Amino acid sequence: QVQLVESGGGLVPAGGSLSVSCAASGRTFSGYAMDWFRQAPGKEREFVASITRFGSRTTYADSVKGRFAISRDNAKNTVWLQMNSLKPEDTAVYYCAARWMNGVEYDGWGQGTQVTVSS
């Protein structure tokens, strides 16, 4: 299995930028596709972005397309989510998750990092 630890959350004004990261340990990181999800208070967890095992393909939710960018460095066992032009509605706990061999089932989830965007 894989262990995931997110970091980098914080408070940022609307229109600002923030980068959150997810450090992995355990099973070979390059074996995992990586996803970011978020959950706002009172709402269900929603998909934000994904990246394939070697970064050849990325996918984004419509709500963040053009503003967020997912990237990874397999040598550093880390995936990032760069968030630009942040909006108050981006406020949520952000989670990373790992799917073995680009599969559909999740092998591990992080504990989450809080991102708060002030208006």
Please provide a brief summary of the model.
The chain has strands at residues 2-7, 10-13, 18-26, 32-39, 46-51, 58-60, 68-73, 78-83, 92-100, 106-109, 113-118.
Number of strand elements:
11
Q: What is the averaged pLDDT score? A: 96
Which strand-content bin applies to the residues?
A: over 45%
Helical segment count: 0
**Terminus-to-terminus distance:** 39 Å
Label the structural class.
mainly beta
- The ordered string of helix (H) and strand (E) elements is EEEEEEEEEEE
Shape: globular
Low-pLDDT residue intervals, each spanning 5 or more residues: none
Radius of gyration: 13 Å
The percent range for helix content is: under 10%
Largest sheet: 7 strands, mixed
What does this entry look like structurally?
By secondary structure, the chain is mainly beta. The chain contains no helices and 11 strands. Strand 9 and strand 10 form a beta hairpin. It is globular and about 40 Å long.
SSE arrangement:
Blueprint lengths: L1 E6 L2 E4 L4 E9 L5 E8 L6 E6 L6 E3 L7 E6 L4 E6 L8 E9 L5 E4 L3 E6 L1
Parallel strand pairs: 2-11
Antiparallel strand pairs: 1-3, 3-8, 4-5, 4-9, 5-6, 7-8, 9-10, 9-11
